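Hi support team,

I submitted a single chain yesterday and got back a structure, but I'm not sure I'm reading the token output correctly. Could someone confirm the output below corresponds to the sequence I sent? I've pasted both exactly as they appear in my results page.

Thanks,
R.
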Amino acid sequence: MKRQRTNHKRDHNRVKTSEEDLALNPSTQLQSQAASSIGKVRTHNEDALFSLSTQVCLQAQHRALGLYIVADGMGGHVDGERASSLAIQAASRVLLHKFFDLLTLEPPFPSGKSVEALLNQAMQAAQMAVLEGVPGGGSTLTLALVLERQVYYAHVGDTRLYLYTHSGGLQALTRDHSVARRLVDLGQLNAAEAQVNPLRNSLFRALGQGEGFSADFGEVTIEAPAKLLLCSDGLWGTLSEDTLVKSLQAEPLPVDAAWKLVQTANAAGGADNISVIIVDIH
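Hi R., thanks for writing in. Yes, this is the structure output for that exact sequence:
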């Protein structure tokens, strides 16, 4: 019995030392929330979401990891539902298998170029899944991959990724692939006109296209506590940026913040499906 107590004490000391080591290597913390609604007008929800926040601890060093994806299907309710689901399944499968496997290896972190290459593989897999599974259908796809304070993202269509910080306010990291946005870029519309232009929902680039498909990629380093907002056009097309900012300004982030945004969009008419992911990075 005495020998057992001695071993237990020694084990307890080992745990305590490990905890002290972890305290000397504080990790970025990720808290995510997701919510989706059919809205008040549509009969089916063609949006799809994927939200995963986790940590890997190797050699007393934490790695905060997050993968967040929003897709909005097109082509009629049956095809739209299937297209968005297939897109997220294909993209997440690539990243969960290849990227998360990399992070079980010892440091250093993967390079930015290697991460972008993996994101491109994920987008191409989503493209093939939609082409083969829903001929004639399509989907938008916006994903964010968070590694500690580094955010990598890929995007096609008009689902959006926003970054919010107290010092910088709300910033759209993605650019819509809509005809209206293209007219803004060409100087033929201003931002206010594009917001109400009927062409704002007409996409010139999306999953399911034939030849010439391409996605946008980006990377941003978070230097201070920040929040990410991923959403479908049922949210950003209904609510003003001021309303989005007010929802993201809460500190700490309320547990039901994503659902409150969905409820607010529904109260404003709910003309489309509404999907939201909020990620608190601190």
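A quick pointer for reading it: Confidence is low (pLDDT under 50) at residues 1-25. Let us know if anything else looks off.

Best,
Support desk
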